[in-house]
């Protein structure tokens, strides 16, 4: 199975080491909110863009693992794509790790085929991971944030605590049952509604913050639209 290999700075049990992790699968989980009101708000937000409601909640989209990148810029087709901050689960060496990424998606394509839209764009991830066991006791206090630079102005685009999302064990079990997340798999865990609505940006920055251990994983990338000739 094809995939990609990414070097991460992995923090586990008080130690940090650089590790190259081979990833052969990428799964994008959608509509993963614990709160049905908040979940339906995001569904309604997408419906305003002409995007149909999901067949199930949550729902899991398979995407080529080669779309994962730690690059600081990506190229997209036209000007109809945008990012979404999400926590990212990674299974490597038998351990479950967590980081943060952006499910950058082509919104125009999303109106007629969500699965294809997920495949259209690279999926930026921060080159840093935490051991899930180190944050499990205070998982719900972890925070996701995203900032978008639009027409030269940097604005808070998304923000929320992971208490609003399905916990890792539940998220994984609904897709893989008791088998757990397969080795070499990355799974995006869902997102929050955008403040001011979904819209494209020239730059997208995202972070996962741990207020208990006082640490943050951050990453950002520029977005370069390519001309659509016809």
From TrEMBL:
GO molecular function: catalytic activity
Protein name (Swiss-Prot/TrEMBL): DUF2848 domain-containing protein
Lineage: Bacteria, Pseudomonadati, Pseudomonadota, Alphaproteobacteria, Hyphomicrobiales
């Amino acid at each position: 199975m094809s995939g990609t290999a990414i070097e991460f700075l992995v923090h586990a049990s008080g130690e940090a080491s650089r590790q190259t992790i081979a990833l052969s699968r990428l799964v994008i989980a959608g509509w993963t909110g614990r709160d049905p009101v908040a979940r339906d708000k995001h569904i309604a937000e997408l419906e305003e863009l002409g995007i149909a409601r999901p067949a199930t909640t949550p729902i899991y989209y398979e995407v080529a693992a080669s779309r994962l990148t730690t690059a600081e810029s990506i190229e997209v087709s036209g000007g109809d794509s945008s990012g979404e901050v999400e926590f990212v689960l990674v299974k490597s060496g038998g351990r479950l790790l967590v980081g943060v990424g952006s499910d950058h998606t082509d919104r125009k394509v999303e109106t007629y085929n969500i699965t294809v839209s997920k495949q259209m764009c690279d999926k930026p991830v921060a080159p840093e991971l935490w051991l899930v066991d180190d944050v499990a006791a205070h998982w719900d206090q972890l925070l996701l944030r995203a900032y978008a630079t639009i027409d030269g102005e940097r604005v808070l685009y998304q923000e929320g605590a992971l208490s609003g999302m399905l916990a890792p064990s539940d998220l994984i079990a609904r897709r893989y049952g008791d088998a757990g997340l397969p080795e070499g798999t990355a799974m995006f865990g869902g997102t929050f509604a955008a403040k001011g609505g979904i819209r494209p940006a020239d730059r997208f920055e995202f972070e996962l913050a741990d207020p208990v251990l006082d640490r943050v994983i951050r990453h950002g990338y520029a977005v370069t639209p390519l001309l659509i000739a016809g």
